[in-house]
Design goal:
Layout lengths: L3 H16 L4 H8 L3 H8 L8 H14 L4 H13 L18 H18 L4 H35 L12 H11 L3 H10 L4 E2 L8 E7 L3 E7 L2 E8 L3 E7 L3 E5 L5 E5 L2 E2 L9 E6 L4 E6 L4 H9 L1
Antiparallel strand pairs: 1-10, 2-5, 2-7, 3-4, 3-6, 6-9, 7-8, 9-10
Helix pairs in contact: 1-5, 4-5, 4-6
Length: 304
């Protein structure tokens, strides 16, 4: 239990702090000493810790509120021993001088603070773990997106772009039989429609063809003599092709498509309901109109 001298010493220390309008929390923030130990000092509860730590805390306490730490420690020793003070003083004077013994005590106090008082709380450790986990998740997401971008950049641009929709296979076969032409029919049609062509100047370095369907229509495309598309094209669908020498395009209804050759639109493809065939080379574009079959021809072809 604290003596009257220790209680008086603690009261004087508390009064000096209150006169300077410094709170215990401010002292704790500056000295890194747990507030409960500072409160114990002001309550004259000096047995809460070993004497070496109590002396170090009192010294830090005094320095923080601008008191002479050496003189305060002397007062504490006198009060603890029960001897009367040799030089009574009415005011505690501040100073900044420190002796080697006090410096060693302060170092031991700081070690005690870091080991016992300033250990990270469980909440802080949990926050740190959550922060690291979040960083890993964000880093993994960024890496995954980067891999997807690299994949599309390297592999998706290596083949010609052909955009089309799925359709019924039976319908495709019927339309193919209806609009397929052999060489003899092409020769006959060419003799019936003479001099229907126009020349357009294009680049021979790279031939590009784009077919845009404004409504559902049958289209056949041949590049360099090889059929690459032969099917129904749905409305608002664009097909893109490339070749080195020529294109051949057959359209079931000429008014339902727009054709672009090397990014330039080909005009006057045909009238509504006309079945048209275009043969495109770097030098010119030839147009052929395919005569639709009459009812008698359809019946005869069906019988055959």
């Amino acid at each position: 239990m604290a003596t009257e001298a220790l209680k008086k010493f603690a009261d004087e220390l508390k009064t000096a702090r209150e006169v300077k309008e410094i709170s215990l929390s401010q002292v704790s923030a500056k000295t890194k000493i747990d507030p409960k130990f500072l409160q114990a000092i002001e309550d004259a509860n000096f047995d809460v810790l070993p004497e070496i730590y109590i002396r170090a805390f009192i010294k830090e306490f005094a320095s923080t509120i601008d008191l002479n730490s050496k003189e305060i420690l002397q007062k504490f020793d006198i009060a603890r021993s029960g001897k009367p003070e040799e030089k009574p003083q009415t005011q505690l004077e501040p100073t900044s001088k420190e002796d080697p013994v006090e410096l060693q005590e302060a170092q031991e106090t700081k070690k005690f603070d870091s080991a016992e008082v300033l250990q990270p709380t469980a909440l802080e450790q949990e926050k740190t773990a959550k922060s690291l986990k979040l960083n890993y998740i964000i880093g993994g997401s960024i890496l995954f997106v980067a891999l997807i971008v690299v994949y599309f950049a390297l592999f998706q641009n290596s083949s010609p772009e052909i955009i089309q929709e799925k359709f019924d296979q039976g319908t495709s076969t019927e339309n193919t039989q209806r609009f397929e032409m052999d060489k003899s029919s092409q020769t006959q049609t060419a003799s019936q429609t003479s001099d229907v062509f126009e020349k357009q100047t294009v680049s021979s370095d790279s031939l590009r063809l784009s077919v845009f369907a404004t409504a559902r229509v049958w289209v056949k495309v041949t590049t360099d003599g090889k059929t690459v598309h032969q099917n129904i094209v749905q409305a608002n669908t664009r097909l893109n092709f490339s070749s080195t020498k020529s294109f051949s395009i057959s359209v079931g209804n000429a008014s339902l498509v727009k054709i672009f050759f090397n990014n330039k639109e080909i005009e006057n493809i045909g009238k509504p309901g006309e079945i048209r065939n275009l043969f495109i080379t770097p030098d010119n574009i030839r147009y052929y109109t395919i005569a639709p079959q009459s009812k008698n021809e359809k019946k005869s072809s069906t019988k055959n």
